[in-house]
């Protein structure tokens, strides 16, 4: 049995006057330790799908199982890294990274030491733990957010455009750091991104979603010579351009279809 099973998900958002079907007939599986990405035109339902898998939204139809258990019955098994770091501005870095452990009653000397060590492994040492978030750069804050997420040892990590607010150089460095860290911990992760290069460089598989309603249009297996490399080196490998062009063309054809369906006849 696969680690994560997403079965026949349909989702419609209802308001007083409208019904928007965001997702239709989504089924997929993810293996333990795998890194997959959801890529697709704006509004194709990537965030909705991520929220359903994380049990933040209940789907209109379908089920999500993590290690064969419905996600609605799980606690603390899923961690997040989002575009904004959501660090509490009035709490120190140490208080921020220990908060999840405290709330889930897992805070003890051992988990505290492990978490502070992880902060150092992320290159954040020299007394940073006593500082406030505003004293840190955007890239440093995202590293803190990753430590906070990993502190409670979630089984599955959800990454919703975690690098999109960063400058290009910081983003490339963080892609490597996140990828290496998740590999070292053997974590399973799902990334939502608009960036084809990022999806290829970080993933084992890429799910391309088509819009209105969102469906899985195609799945791309990343060539094994790229999977072996860190994201930075993968971007510079000759196999990268080939798969980039293939996905680019597919995404472009999807975007053209979307534009046409928006043009009034
Ligand atoms: N709370 C909501 N109520 C009504 N419709 C919604 C709601 N949230 C999302 N939608 C609609 O559902 C569809 C999918 O939205 P979603 O945010 O999941 O897409 P996305 O692929 O993540 O978009 P983007 O790439 O722009 O972030 C869109 O048509 C959106 O307008």
UniProtKB/TrEMBL annotation:
Keywords (A to Z) from UniProt: ATP-binding, Nucleotide-binding, Transport
One Pfam family matching this protein: ABC_tran
Record keyword Nucleotide-binding present: yes
GO-annotated molecular function: ATP binding; ATP hydrolysis activity
InterPro entries in the record: AAA+_ATPase, ABC_transporter-like_ATP-bd, ABC_transporter-like_CS, ABC_transporter_ATP-bind, P-loop_NTPase
The ABC transporter domain, residue ranges: 4-236
Gene3D superfamilies: P-loop containing nucleotide triphosphate hydrolases
PANTHER family referenced in this protein's UniProt entry, alphabetically: ABC TRANSPORTER ATP-BINDING PROTEIN, TAURINE IMPORT ATP-BINDING PROTEIN-RELATED
Name assigned to this protein: ABC transporter ATP-binding protein
Annotated source species: Neobacillus thermocopriae
């Amino acid at each position: 049995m696969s680690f994560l099973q997403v079965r026949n998900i349909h989702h419609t958002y209802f308001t007083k006057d409208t019904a928007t079907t965001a997702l239709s007939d989504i089924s997929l599986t993810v293996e333990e330790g795998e890194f997959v990405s959801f890529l697709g035109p704006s509004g194709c339902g990537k965030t909705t799908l991520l929220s359903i898998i994380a049990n933040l939204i209940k789907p209109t139809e379908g089920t999500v199982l993590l290690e064969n258990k419905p996600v609605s019955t799980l606690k603390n098994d899923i961690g997040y890294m989002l575009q904004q770091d959501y660090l509490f501005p009035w709490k120190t870095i140490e208080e921020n990274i220990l908060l999840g452990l405290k709330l889930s009653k897992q805070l003890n000397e051992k988990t505290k030491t492990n978490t502070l060590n992880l902060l150092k492994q992320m290159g954040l040492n020299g007394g940073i733990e006593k500082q406030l978030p505003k004293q840190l750069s955007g890239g440093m804050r995202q590293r803190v957010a990753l430590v906070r997420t990993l502190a409670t040892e979630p089984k599955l990590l959800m990454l919703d455009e975690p690098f999109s607010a960063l400058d290009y150089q910081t983003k490339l460095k963080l892609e490597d750091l996140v990828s290496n860290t998740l590999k070292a911990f053997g974590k399973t992760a799902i990334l939502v991104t608009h960036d084809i290069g990022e999806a290829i460089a970080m993933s084992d598989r890429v799910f391309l979603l088509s819009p209105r309603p969102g469906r899985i249009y195609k799945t791309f297996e990343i060539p094994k010579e790229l999977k072996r490399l860190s994201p930075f080196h993968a971007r510079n490998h000759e196999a990268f351009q080939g798969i980039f062009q293939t996905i680019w063309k597919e995404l472009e054809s999807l975007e053209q279809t979307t534009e046409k369906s928006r043009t009034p006849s």
